[in-house]
Design goal:
Distance between the termini: 34 Å
Shape: globular
Structural class: alpha/beta
Order of helices and strands: EHEEHEHEHEHEHEHEHHHH
Helix content: 25-40%
Strand content: 5-15%
Number of domains: 2
Largest sheet: 9 strands, mixed
Length: about 270
């Protein structure tokens, strides 16, 4: 295991940063990275973030949005943590895309430990793992908010899938607003705790999105997905997930009602 540790750590100086990263404040002095740094990775890059306590709904939406963005040629930038971050990286790789993981620790540390294999797959697929912290820096409470400004700086816009009231994803969104980036958010039920943050963002200036086409339109100059392409977004879901999508298309329902229709337990 830890095959990624055999790969060389390189340093990118400020003068070689993508323009968006140069404008980040507090200023990023240098960036450590593993992988092959290519400028075209960041010409079309979307930051995808969300709750570490991802719900089934959040997982489905992440898969749908990231598959569509990957098929449209976008790099997916995320924070490598549990939940939406990890799902975004994995879905991008499953669809032959390239993804950039921005760590909240140094490159020789691993948080979370279960993402060991994902670290290696990102590098093998032509992606990058990056951090502004020295390689041996362990993850701390303060390192993650700092990490979030780099996710925003490397992305053309920020897409927030799910977020509670105190979610770190809201920090990423705030960095995005400060950097004059577009912030997009997926709405959810007003009774859902992990939609309180995204609904708040929409109320305070984020763009409401309900499809990949909405995102592509915000990116500008990108043709919406054709009907044939849109039909390929659902097959990435499992059979049960597709059932959930079809039920929710018809009407909103609480978890217990949904479970009853699916003949499943919610526990």
């Amino acid at each position: 295991m830890r095959e990624w540790k055999q790969r060389e750590i390189k340093v990118l100086k400020f003068e070689d940063f993508p323009d968006g990263l140069k404008r980040v404040r507090p200023e990023v002095k240098q960036l450590f990275y593993r992988g092959k740094w290519e400028e075209d990775l960041f010409k079309k890059a979307v930051g995808v973030v969300g709750s570490r306590r991802m719900t089934k709904y959040g997982q489905m939406v992440t898969k749908m949005m990231v598959q569509g963005l990957t098929e449209a040629g976008y790099t997916i930038v995320s924070g490598f943590m549990y939940g939406v971050d990890t799902q975004a990286h994995k879905t991008c790789l499953e669809n032959k895309g390239r993804t950039v993981a921005v760590l909240g620790c140094g490159l020789d540390c691993l948080t979370p430990a279960e993402n060991d294999g994902l670290y290696t797959k990102i590098l093998e697929s032509g992606g990058l793992v990056v951090s502004e912290f020295e390689p041996k820096q362990e993850a701390k409470l303060w390192t993650f908010p700092y990490r979030n400004r780099i996710v925003a700086g490397l992305s053309q816009l920020i897409l927030v899938i799910e977020a509670g009231e105190n979610s770190g994803s809201l920090v990423t969104a705030r960095w995005g607003f400060q950097q004059k980036k577009k912030v997009l958010a997926v709405p959810g039920m007003i009774t859902a705790s992990l939609s309180k943050g995204t609904n708040w963002l929409i109320r305070n200036g984020a763009v409401l999105v309900t499809s990949v086409n909405d995102i592509l339109e915000e990116l500008g100059g990108m043709r919406p997905l054709k009907e044939k392409q849109k039909g390929r977004i659902l097959p990435v879901l499992s059979g049960e997930e597709k059932e959930v999508v079809e039920l929710l298309k018809r009407e909103e329902m609480e978890a217990d009602e949904l479970a009853k229709k699916l003949n499943k337990s919610i526990t």
